[in-house]
Amino acid sequence: MYDVQGKTAVITGAASGMGLGMARSFSDAGMAVVLADIEADRLDAAVAELTAAGHRAIGVPTDVSDEAQIQALAQAALDEFGSVHVVSNNAGIGIGGAVDEMSLEDWKWTIDVDLWSVIYGVRTFLPLL
């Protein structure tokens, strides 16, 4: 897809880092963007930045480890912009410290965010693309 003007992108982990960078780049290219992040305050600030610059953007607080929230994210994108053309399953975490000192809860959280969220994203968004 070379002509992205007027298309819609959904980005998880979009309130900071690479996700916010993608949201800025996609917006600058003429896309509407749906930002998803678990950090509501940062999400609000990112959306405010983009809309203040004249871009079409919404934020959807999302815990990507929960498939129902990924489905709600897709519905929010469809409700606001009518379609989805690009999805970036960007959200990810890393636990600092030694691997052998990670708790089972840390392992579960990491796998839920770094693996299951991508599976949920593919299952939810692929039929829409």
Can you characterise this structure?
By secondary structure, the chain is an alpha/beta fold. The chain contains four helices and four strands, in the order βαβαβαβα. It has helices at residues 17-28, 40-52, 67-81, 104-125; strands at 8-12, 32-37, 57-61, 86-88. Strands 3-2-1-4 form a four-stranded parallel β-sheet, with helices on both faces. α2 links the parallel β2 and β3 (57-61). α3 (67-81) packs parallel to α4 (104-125).
Q: Mean pLDDT, nearest integer?
A: 96
Biggest sheet, in brief? 4 strands, parallel
Number of helices: 4
Stretches where pLDDT falls below 50 for ≥5 residues? none
Strand order of the largest sheet: 3-2-1-4
| Total beta-strand segments | 4
Q: Could you tell me the strand content as a percent range?
A: 5-15%
- Helical fraction: 40-55%
The computed structural class is alpha/beta
Distance between the termini: 12 Å
Shape: globular
